Amino acid sequence: PGAHQEYAESDWSEDSWSDYGSRGKGGSALGRIVPSGNMLFPDIFHTDHLFFYERFRTYQDYILADCKASEVKQFIAEYLEKVLEPSGWQAIWRTDVFDVVVRVVDVDYSSLKAVVELSEPFLCESQDSSFTLECMQELLELKEYQILLQELWVVFDESGEFDQTALAIEHVRFFYRCIWRTWDEEEEDDFDYFVRCVEPRLRLHYDILEHRVPSGLVADYQSLLSQCEELYAKFLHVRNSISTSDSDSEVENVSMVEGLKLYEKVEHLKQKLKLIENPLLRYVFGYQKYGSLQAKGQRAMGAKVTHVVSLTMMTSLLRLLMRDKFCSESCEEVQLQFHNDPLTAVNACYEGDTVIICPGHYVVDGVFCIADSIEVEGYGLPDDIVIEKQGKGDNFFDCTGANVRISGLKLVQHDAVEGILNVHHGKTTLENCVLQCETTGITVRMSAELLMKNSDLYGAKGAGVEIYPGSTCTLLHNGIHHCKEGILIKNFLDEHYDVPKITMMNNVIHNNEGYGVVLVRPVTPSEVKDATAQTTQDENVKTEENEFREFLMMGLFCMTVVTFFPALFPALGNAQPPQSGDETACGEGTGQEQQPQCVTDELELYERAEIAGQIEGNRELANELGATSAKKSKRHKKRLSELGITEADDNLMSQDMFISVEGNQFKWNGKGSFGIFVF
């Protein structure tokens, strides 16, 4: 660790990368690690613990630079030729079957291979005893004594002479294991390979290592990657079989059709992988992590239980509960269960149960997975009933029940990967709650419904509320503030997604870093055409705008001078026509007793402007969402027309987004009330 810290703070903080190691110093700057297994094996360099910025800088500045996808191997070979020792070092050749110590006698940079020979004494470890000295010699002869560099782990050398060699091989090994894809060579060369592929994949790798990506999304990514590699291998096989055949037979035609189908599937999977690799679009397609979570349903006899949670149950508290919660006019018998942990109480619930949480600070280490229709309510003020998440984890509250109600609680989240509340299915009502977030706030997935009212949400490093396509979200009288974005609406014109139904009334959305409300949607071809035309038009009017702006600035300057320094321009001052009433006082500014009236008028003007801005923010949001909905409806009608359906039922055609945006206040948001993110 000390050597690693010195490496991070000194070598990489200066422009001395090429001098890394012991050249000009004494000894190796890298750590050593003892290989597992054979105790006779020599130690190797410890190089697989590099930081993100170390790999990032090396790939960007020293290996790949601005190369194209087709030039990757060439650029790597040129890099290795500069930093790799061509001979005189030992390494452990590792495969899935055996490990063996070899000595490098030469390097073929163009093929990224090393020419090796077995070391003396012969050291080998395998799953069985069949790999003898003679067998390994025969295997090396078949390989012409050439081994891929990425299969070699450099043996530790205290002199530091081979530090750069060990690091260079580590960078190559990491690249081909974690960054490179077999289909990358077919990427278009019009794009910078590092920017398009290396950087997003490298960031995703370290986001996963640092637990910033939900485990479910990681599993989805690995599954998609495996599927894509398998389908791409099949596609290559089919394509090669077609290219080697000269006959125009029926079999070849069938192969061409099969190849096209495989190609479309591969492209579809590649797009999904790119979405996950992109940190901005990573959560666009929400995965159903708890889709298989089964509800318990009702108890055998249909009984319903009220679960009471309290750190310490006192008789005074019990009397208050009996008076406020259980002594109703019906005087029905209520079955009670007592808990000292809210997570245990929720896990014990069946359909129709109620959880009452008494005042206290509860620290939980786990996820609230609510699959049944239950109520979780706090007995008292939200600030007195705090549930705090302890330890790292993906989620805090996950709701899949048909009708879940949460009220009167304060939820505090730490070290999270996902949002504080995820509504995957069904309807969740959140009332009179305080949510102190860590990453994103509340996420409303496709086909889910959220009713949030009289609640306060803050602190999200992402969006306070994320609304997915096909969902229903009603926000009434809430405060959403001090988040990166206030509300993020994900709406797609693709026919696979229904538009969300949104109601926003009397919310206060303020002090967010970005926009109060932001809409995420794909760019349309018409917008691309309009953007091109607009660019040309902007260039034509740019000169006129600059001249007009200079004219206004000069006019404002002259008005300011005449107003505040009338003595300098007596002729202009006397030429002003006399005004009457308050306007004269404000214009001349000569009477001290009249200055408060000027300030009052300015405040009134400011308040009017602010109110007008709030109204405009609500109108702008409603208009944009309505326009997006109209575009989807138009596409839907066109698709029906192409299918030969000329008359459709009004209910079928009414796919417009249900919009009700009234009385919301947007204040002090960094980028404004409403914005659009187009991808």
From TrEMBL:
Q: Report quaternary structure and partners.
A: Interacts directly with isoform p52shc of SHC1 via its SH2 domain. Interacts with TRIM71; leading to enhanced SHCBP1 protein stability. Interacts with both members of the centralspindlin complex, KIF23 and RACGAP1.
Q: Which SUPFAM superfamilies match?
A: Pectin lyase-like
What's its job?
Answer: May play a role in signaling pathways governing cellular proliferation, cell growth and differentiation. May be a component of a novel signaling pathway downstream of Shc. Acts as a positive regulator of FGF signaling in neural progenitor cells.
For the region Disordered, give the residue spans: 576-597
Q: Could you tell me which residue ranges the SHC SH2 domain spans?
A: 54-282
One Pfam family it belongs to: SHCBP_N
Q: What's the name of the protein?
A: SHC SH2 domain-binding protein 1
Recorded hits in InterPro entries, A to Z, give: Beta_helix, PbH1, Pectin_lyas_fold, Pectin_lyase_fold/virulence, SHCBP-like_N, SHCBP1-like
Q: Which domain of life is it from?
A: Eukaryota
Q: Name one GO cellular component term.
A: spindle
- Could you state one GO biological process linked to this protein? fibroblast growth factor receptor signaling pathway
Which residue range or ranges hold the Right handed beta helix domain? Answer: 419-520
Q: Which gene encodes it?
A: Shcbp1
Write out the entry's keywords from A to Z.
Acetylation, Cytoplasm, Cytoskeleton, Phosphoprotein, Repeat
Its subcellular locations are: Cytoplasm, Cytoskeleton, Spindle; Midbody
Q: What is its main location?
A: cytoplasm
Please state the span of the N-terminal signal peptide per the UniProt entry: none
